[in-house]
């Protein structure tokens, strides 16, 4: 009986460990890299834009969404962050970048969900599934969140499993970055 419980505990630990978050996103203190994407909503809707240059020194949370892993939990994370971001700063926005998958399919899909987000620009990166150069996006992550202030990375968060309760940590970093 004791061996069975020990084996079961080891199996649970191993499963929990394999679901641990991964490393993804640039390191804190790094200057943000170019981020050329196609915007499907937000102030640059319908344009190809370098969002890093566009946002310059403004507080921004960049979300790199693994297109093949997008589902209800990722949507709820984005929706919750979208609702909280302007409470931190009226200049703060979220830029969600779909990476991986087929860019044309992402461009068809995103306009259908843009109605759910008021302060989030939905964009598509048409290149490599690892995302744009300099952003260190890990394909294993369902979602990578990068908090940026004054053109520098404050902190990156990467999730293999994500839900709306994970927004609290991202929101806290954004508040620290803007001095709240």
Comma- or semicolon-separated keywords:
180 residues, alpha/beta, Glutaredoxin, seven-stranded mixed sheet, globular
Shape: globular
CATH superfamily: Glutaredoxin
Which value, in Å, is the CA radius of gyration? 17 Å
How does CATH name the architecture?
A: 3-Layer(aba) Sandwich
Along the chain, the helix and strand elements come as HEEHEHEHEEEH
Oligomer: single chain
Strand percentage = 15-25%
Number of strands: 7
The secondary-structure class comes to alpha/beta
Number of helices: 5
With strands numbered from the N-terminus, the spatial order across the biggest sheet is 2-1-5-4-3-6-7
CATH class division? Alpha Beta
Looking at the structure, the CATH topology is: Glutaredoxin
Mean pLDDT: 89
Percent helix, as a range, is: 25-40%
The main pleated sheet reads as: 7 strands, mixed
Distance between the termini: 54 Å
As for the number of domains, it is 1
